[in-house]
Design a protein that fits this description.
Blueprint lengths: L2 H18 L2 E3 L6 E3 L9 E9 L2 E2 L4 E4 L6 E3 H7 L3 E5 L4 E6 L2 E6 L5 E3 L2 E3 L6 E3 L2 E5 L1 H5 L4 E5 L2 E5 L1 H4 L1 E14 L2 E6 L7 E13 L15 E7 L9 E9 L9 E12 L5 E9 L7 E6 L4 E4 L15 E6 L10 E11 L10
Length: 353
């Protein structure tokens, strides 16, 4: 065999290996066993390391060109969080369950089950190297764990580790100045709770529809998921992870006054009005106002529970919400959109300062 022929045979052998993926040999014999070639997409830019509750995960994620977020391995992440994963080969979907949590994902479909409804995350699940990958936001939006993305690392904190609390309330202040954003609920002055907003705070409606900070308004009822840790100041302040609006409230253009009910009036037509004296929720709002109560006026307490009109008596501490259509009398008169009972008369021992 000449030298040129030897080179040709070697080249053919190398080409064979590149096409078949090479040969693996059993430990006890010389019978070659062909293994499938692994094709890595050229659109994958880099691997992403994953940590769950400060423990590194063996499996990695990846991020593709022009992708808005990393992709992470569904089963590895879910099972580490204690979530059972069941794969359905027939329709290429996976079911996830843990206690009251249940959701499902399907390859190629940007539809994730949340509260018995479908929610879009902007990226569909993918099959890569025989594993199902989902966008990192799946963990925060669907599995309700905290996700932090820094460079090539995705850090996940489970609910058990995060130690959160949930508080319902009605917005009394929306503050946005020089990059600092806060929302106060259930009062002003020393009352209520200040929710500090960060870059990772999620805003959405109960059905999963995305909202933004700009969608929040005075008088809107919300539920806030926040840290158990809070400042010792009055009012206390706390980092906030998620704000949920139970319903899309029509709260644009609403202003308000917080204080004590000074007088309850009943007109000849049976209409009830309350006079509130205290402090306006904005600089342009009157500190004293008379508000007519109509059949459409919502009467609730700070937890969003309906209260009776009879509880709005002299001495009760309330927040009155109304639009800007007022008379020019002193005090101005308007129609109440919503009245929040902060404290009944027997508990409201002092006026709002």
């Amino acid at each position: 065999m000449n030298k040129r022929m030897k080179k040709s045979i070697a080249a053919l052998f190398a080409l064979s290996i590149s096409v078949t993926g090479g040969a693996a040999y059993a430990a006890n014999d010389n019978v070659p066993q062909t293994t499938a070639a692994v094709v890595i997409s050229q659109s994958i830019l880099q691997q992403i390391q994953i940590a769950i509750d400060n423990e590194a995960l063996t499996a990695n994620g990846y991020i593709k060109a022009d992708a808005k977020e990393p992709m992470i391995p569904l089963r590895d992440v879910a099972e580490t969080l204690g979530i059972k994963v069941t794969w359905n080969e027939a329709d290429q979907s996976a079911e996830l369950s843990k206690g009251a949590l249940w959701t499902s994902v399907k390859l190629g479909e940007d539809r994730y089950v949340l509260n018995k409804m479908y929610k879009s995350l902007g990226t569909a699940p993918e099959l890569t190297d025989s594993k199902t990958y989902v966008p990192a936001s799946f963990v925060s939006e669907i599995l309700h764990a905290n996700v932090k993305i820094e460079g090539s690392t995705v850090s996940i904190t489970s609910e058990q580790q995060r130690k959160t609390a949930s508080t319902k309330g009605v917005i009394t202040v929306v503050y946005d100045n020089e990059g600092r954003q806060t929302v106060r609920i259930n009062g002003i002055g020393t009352d209520g709770l200040v929710l500090n907003i960060g870059a990772e705070t999620v805003f959405e409606k109960a059905d999963g529809t995305k909202l933004g900070f700009a969608d929040l308004a005075l008088g809107m009822e919300i539920e806030a998921e926040h840290s158990l840790a809070a400042t010792l100041s009055l009012p206390p302040q706390t980092p906030t992870y998620k704000i949920t609006v139970p319903e899309q409230a029509e709260a644009k253009g609403i202003i308000g006054t917080v204080g004590l009910i000074e007088e309850v009036r009943t007109g000849d037509d049976g209409t009830t009005s309350i006079r509130i004296k205290g402090m306006g929720l904005t600089e342009q709002t009157s500190s004293e106002v008379v508000l007519r109560l109509t059949d459409t006026t919502e009467l609730i307490n700070v937890n969003g529970e309906t209260v009776e009109k009879s509880s709005l008596e002299k001495g009760a501490k309330v927040i009155g919400y109304y639009n800007g259509v007022l008379t020019r009398t002193l005090p101005p008169i308007g129609t109440a959109w919503k009245v929040v009972l902060q404290a009944p008369a027997e508990d409201a021992s002092s006026q709002v300062k």
